[in-house]
Automatic annotation (TrEMBL):
GO MF annotation terms: hydrolase activity; nucleotide binding
Listed GO biological process terms: cobalamin biosynthetic process
Family label: Belongs to the SIMIBI class G3E GTPase family. ZNG1 subfamily.
Protein name, entry field: Cobalamin biosynthesis protein CobW
């Protein structure tokens, strides 16, 4: 039974670059009259996701409605960061009617769901649903299965531990916790790939969960908000690789790299493409100034796929310093990344 006095929260999970921020932006744009607020947490933070959501110019959505949680892992800093940030939202004179929580692509959702049982918040909020966004083409290409190259980088960084595949573990934990799965980037998949990947996901799930194909995370808001899962009371149905104890994020690391003004979007994309080829690199994203352009250039690298667009004008007084965050497996080839980005 859902307690209607509790404010529903939707947790958006999914691996690096799957389309979580895109989903959150879509939901804000199609809020259907709901007063929404967003909590965003990133790994290797340069404030990208929060800034990118704010940069979207959605009417009725103010900066105050987007709360960035400090860099770190939302699932590990529940007491210090998450509970206080959530409480602050709830204590507003005009609190949100529904809260979206975008976790980092490396976060495990289950510890976050568990946090909803904390005394400070349990009578006030409920987990309406956990939505897992899946990068369909990456899954179809076997990205989350054992990857000999990735494991070699991993082992090179740390000979003492016989790692399981860290990508696979994070990815599976996210799926195992989900109340709904978006098979995203359907525009980049063949019908055969979609059918194969859907069957594969369904075979691994502990219970029946709806899988919806999406293009740019577009889905009817009514299908996502209002699932009434009360997930915090249903933890046993959500197995995790980490049920037996603590986890850490030592398998991954990130760097933020300053980038000066670039001559053109294409020139930068070419450098980012080379950086993405370096061993162990998983995700590159950021904002960069381009010569003669009043707009800031958003650059997105997911695996080896690079995209860019201008999102909004630089504001007066804003420091026009470009910054890219690079996230990879621990021990990723920083020197090659830095050399490639320097051009
Ligand atoms: N072709 C295609 N690209 C997509 C789709 N959905 C998202 N993208 C692109 O994928 C990139 C990453 O999308 P985000 O929404 O930032 O992904 P994310 O999961 O928030 O990424 P992290 O927060 O870094 O983990 C962006 O360049 C998006 O425009 C899709 O359905 N098709």
């Amino acid at each position: 039974m859902t307690d209607l006095t509790k404010i529903p929260c939707t947790i958006v999970t999914g691996f690096l670059g799957a389309g979580k921020t895109t989903l959150v932006r879509n939901l804000l744009q199609n809020a259907q009259g709901r007063r929404l607020a967003v909590l965003v947490n990133e790994f290797g933070d340069i404030g990208f996701d929060g800034s990118f959501i704010e940069g979207c110019g959605i009417s009725g959505c103010t900066e105050d409605d987007i709360v960035e949680l400090p860099n770190g892992c939302i699932c590990c800093t529940v007491a210090d960061d998450f509970v206080p940030a959530l409480t602050k939202l709830l204590d507003r004179p005009n609190p949100p009617e529904h809260i979206l929580i975008e976790t980092s692509g490396l976060a495990l959702p289950k510890p976050l769901v568990t946090a909803f049982n904390w005394p400070a918040i349990r009578s006030r909020v409920t987990v309406d649903g956990v939505i897992a966004v899946v990068d369909g083409p990456a899954l179809a290409a076997g990205f989350f299965a054992d990857d000999p190259e990735a494991l070699a980088v991993q082992r090179g960084a740390d000979n003492s531990v016989d790692h399981d595949n860290p990508l696979e573990e994070v990815f599976e934990d996210q799926l195992l916790c989900a109340d709904m799965i978006l098979l995203n980037k359907s525009d980049l998949m063949t019908a055969d790939d979609k059918a194969r990947v859907k069957a594969d996901i369904a075979a691994h799930l502990p219970r029946s969960v709806k899988i919806i194909e999406t293009d740019h995370s577009f889905v009817d808001t009514a299908l996502i908000l209002g699932l009434k899962a009360a997930a915090e009371g249903d933890l046993a149905a959500r197995p995790s690789h980490h049920d037996e104890g603590e986890h850490d994020h030592d398998d991954f690391e990130s760097i933020a790299i300053p980038v000066g003004i670039v001559s053109s979007a294409e020139a930068l994309a070419s450098r980012v493409g080379k950086a993405a080829d370096a061993d162990g690199v998983l995700r590159i994203k950021g904002f960069v100034p381009v010569e003669g352009r009043p707009m800031r250039l958003v650059v997105q690298g997911v695996g080896r796929r690079i995209a860019h667009h201008y999102d909004r004008p630089w504001t007066n007084g804003e420091d026009r310093q470009g910054r890219l965050v690079v996230i990879g497996l621990k021990g990723f080839d920083r020197a090659s990344v830095e050399a490639a980005l320097a051009g």
